[in-house]
Model the fold of this input.
Amino acid sequence: MDKLRVDLKEKSYDIIIGENIYGELKEYIGKYHKILLISNDKIGPLYSEGIKKELEKIGKVSYYEIPDGEEYKKIETVMPIYDFMLENNFDRNSLVVSLGGGVVCDLSGYVASTFMRGIDFIQLPTSLLAQVDASIGGKVALNLPGGKNLIGSFYQPKLVYIDTSVLQTLDTREIKTGLAEIIKHGVLWDAEYFNFLSENNNKILSLDSETIIKMIKRSCEIKAEIVSKDEKEKGIRAFLNYGHTYGHVVENLTKYKIYRHGEAVVYGMVFAAEIAKELGMVSNDFIEKQNAIFEKFGMDYIIPKYNLEKVLEIFGHDKKVANGEIKFILPEKIGKVKMLSVSEENLTKVYEKIRGKDVKTVIDIGTNSVRLCIAEVFHNKISKIYSKFVEITRLGEDVDKNRYLKKEAIERTIKILSKYKKIGIDFGSIIYRTIATSASRDAENKDAFFEKATKESNLSIEVIDGKNEGELSFAGVMTDGYQENVMVIDIGGGSTEFIFGNNKEIKIVKSINVGAVRLKDKFFQDDIYNEENYKKAEKWIIMQLEEISKMREEKYILIGVAGTITTQVSIAEKMKKYDSQKVHRYNLSIDRINENLKLLSSKTLGERKKVKGLEEKRADVIVAGTFLLKVIMNYLSQKRIIVSENDILEGLLISKK
Done:
């Protein structure tokens, strides 16, 4: 067991480091009448009972659990904790104990610092990141919508107690997010430590006990030394913010849900190094050394690039802004950094030069729905998907009958397009591509729709033909790396695309004017599903399918995309909440499709809206869509279809246009 001292005179405290040491916790804590243990719903179930037993040897223990995630580090999470403490008669002589990662450490410390103007607290950090960073130094804070850690204070704990055995329960990604902060310590303070990390990367990643304890101890020593010299961040403590300025931009724009803190800090360190290079402070040699250690630990260091105006706006909210210039911690060499004010002009110059992953927004305006996907794209490959949305707008309602897009349908669609543009802006997208498919191709008033939609949503819309639509869907499916021949079926509202090929070439693309909405309007407009209507519909579908008759002779994996097909899975699995991971690559049988059809057609429209797994707005067309899928599979003599979440949206993301 190792002991370090954070020397802050009357506010000094110990950091205890060891393996399997929770059983000795009581030896380091004084007597308290009441103790509040705060954890989250991820860590609490693993350790809270054991910790409570140890704390009960000291005083009466209450337990409070919060949801896991950075998005919960906010005042709305804290207010119920205050109420809980008042209801349970906590007073100024009580103790708060945090058990968790950085969010729990920050939030618990904030509660302790503000309840009755401050009560004692101790930190039991369970993540590597918290053990070397968040638990030490007394920075306690909450996030605001405009930025990270914008409300808080400096409030020191009475003890930091680090049990390294808990690291064995963490996944590799969580370990790496802590290692990012550890590498940061080497870059900003200790070149010898940086070299130790680089030389021992394999032992560290395998969680070798001796190496891990040595590493954590040195990182704690570095932070303790800095905090002891500058508790309130008036000088050198700001060095610990190396990588945080742009890192906070990444976290903010991704709503604290896509990247973990350490991952964002890596991007921030890369950006800061590029600024330092632009200012003549470091050479390429420094950048190569820093990037090399990221590579050794398997960390992504290609930064996501956002809309520059949005980036500068978030910089403007940062605590490190002064007199219109942004203060950055910039490297001079490994082991040494300094604080400098950087002008907007220099930031812009660096940002435009730097290689990065473009954040791209793509929108698909279909006959039945409008869909959105936001993702990072690097060298025409999808790096990370941020978010997907779908809204049923019925743009193609009755378009088959009168060849016109209805005014109400146009208004619904434009409202969603405007909403999607705002979402894209909020995520900092720098590239937008919006396409329109079947209904827009067929309507006589399509030009008026495009003009109005472009003006009101500020999105440029392009109409693509069935062939292009099929090619994009196929490209999206093939991002999964299929090597065999595949046949992709994309059932839309107004048309269905059939694409046959492999990872080298597309051999056949056919688009037929049969879709779920079109079929419903033509044969099932009164919501009557009987044998007579089914026979008429099947005869008509098969007539259209003659265009793909040659495909019946080919051998391939059958893959289905888009809402009609993905909904078959959510209904079959009775999903209360749509689970895209479970849907993706689901092996769906014709028997399950027949069961779905029987279930859905036996219910009234009102009853269908209550079926588990079925989106309410899709209830009126799902029977027609399911019947269409059944007829297609029977026509192709296929008993199974692989359901893919990757479709035209992914195809749009990787397209070079």
